[in-house]
Write a structure and sequence with these properties.
- The protein is built from 16 helices and no strands.
- The longest helix has 34 residues.
- It is mainly alpha-helical.
- It is globular.
- GO terms for molecular function: transmembrane transporter activity.
Length: 406
């Protein structure tokens, strides 16, 4: 009997380890699935923009608002994310934001101008909150797998853009309705809400600890500003790809379906770059030269899709895809590699995405302004060469071996 009693703890202890591992795997899967919904609002709209404009008679000012507004909202709501997470818990805040995103995508699909604007605002706000908190969640729960998890969730974000770019045109063809083609993207968001809700509601929010607010002031940290500048410059190119690459290709004479495939192909390559870049970066003591080289590749790739020979469009698209996917992933990975703890990561993420996406939204606006003023995308190509060079300099500074607050 004594032997039996002594063996009992040995039977129960291992049973808890698989439970923790299962919960971690489940959380990792949910993070990836959430990422798959964070860019379809941008790429799905631009993929069928000419059809929407012709069918609805949408004025140019509304087109500009619907392409630039969501990116601007990402920055406007970002500062609220850390405070909401402290009050409600990270998982529950993300769950609420995903519900708002799903509702926004559904409302946008009704086709009414006012509903499209309201739905776009809601979707942008939801994405803005999730953008800030996903790196914080990775920093908190996957400290031993930062490179892998950063690659997985940034890759899923790029994959979301590819899905929107590649499938919205076929959805339009199958349904005959641009409203249905846009509204479809609410369905994956609803599925993720249903899958993530049990996990998010099961976890109790951590107590509101004052030490989470203590620590280094990111607004006084030169490194935090360098990371923010790196994010802002890559965002100017990234969101311009989502909003303008398909119209640029169609302007060059490629039909709508083919342009959608080229954009989707470029973004699929982005997924590969975003998977590979974070693990490579995590193994390096300094990421400065890696950041700089990828930024130059991205700027050159974007310029060549506008100015390069059309026969080589797939070469330019792949070049742009490798660069942009890696660049986006590296900018987000700087949050987890250049901070020492989750609270600091949350503050850097809020600052970086507030200013980064706020400034980044100007990229899509400037492309539209330059095209309207000149009737050509050539000035935009020169602009992207300049942005790529500036991102290289800022990325080199952001990637040096140091930590925010050190």
């Amino acid at each position: 009997m004594d032997n039996t009693l002594m063996q009992a703890p040995e039977r129960t202890a291992p049973s808890q380890a698989p439970t923790r591992r299962t919960a971690s795997v489940l959380l990792a899967v949910c993070i990836v699935l959430i990422g798959l919904n964070l860019r379809t609002v941008f790429s799905s709209f631009s993929a069928i923009l000419p059809e929407i404009t012709v069918a609805s008679g949408m004025p140019a000012v509304l087109v500009t608002a619907l392409t630039t507004g969501p990116v601007l909202l990402l920055g406007m709501v970002a500062p609220a994310a850390p405070a909401l997470a402290r009050r409600l818990g990270i998982e529950r805040t993300i769950l609420i934001a995903m519900i708002v995103l799903a509702a926004g995508l559904a409302v946008r699909g009704t086709g009414d101008f006012a509903a499209m604007a309201a739905g776009t605002v809601a979707a942008g706000a939801g994405i803005g909150i999730v953008n800030v908190l996903l790196p914080t969640l990775v920093k908190r729960d996957f400290q031993h797998r930062l490179g892998l998890m950063s690659g997985l969730y940034t890759g899923s974000i790029c994959a979301a853009a590819a899905l929107g770019a590649g499938f919205t045109q076929p959805l339009l063809g199958a349904s005959g309705s641009w409203q249905a083609a846009l509204g479809f993207w609410a369905l994956p968001a609803v599925v993720v809400v249903l899958l993530f809700a049990p996990l998010a509601l099961r976890r109790r929010p951590a107590p509101d600890r004052k030490q989470d607010d203590a620590g280094p002031s990111v607004w006084r940290s030169p490194l935090a500003w360098q990371i923010t500048g790196f994010m802002a410059l890559q965002a100017m190119m990234s969101f311009s790809v989502f909003a303008w690459l398909a119209p640029i290709l169609r302007e060059r004479g490629i039909d709508g379906a083919a342009a959608g495939y080229v954009v989707a192909g470029s973004i699929v390559v982005q997924v590969l770059g975003s998977f590979l870049a974070p693990p490579v970066a995590a193994r390096l003591r300094s990421q400065g030269w890696l950041n700089a080289g990828i930024a130059l590749l991205t700027g050159a790739g974007f310029a060549l899709t506008i100015l390069g020979p059309l026969d080589l469009v797939w070469v330019w698209a792949v070049m742009l895809g490798v660069g942009q996917g890696s660049l986006t992933a590296l900018a987000l990975t700087m949050i987890v590699l250049r901070t020492r703890d989750a609270p600091t990561a949350a503050r850097v993420s809020g600052m970086m995405q507030c200013l980064g996406y706020g400034i980044g939204s100007s990229g899509t606006l400037l492309v539209g302004v330059l095209y309207t003023a000149t009737g050509s995308f050539t000035p935009a190509a020169l602009m992207f060469l300049g942005i790529g060079a500036a991102a290289a300099g800022m990325g080199f500074l952001a990637g040096r071996s140091r930590f925010v607050g050190s």
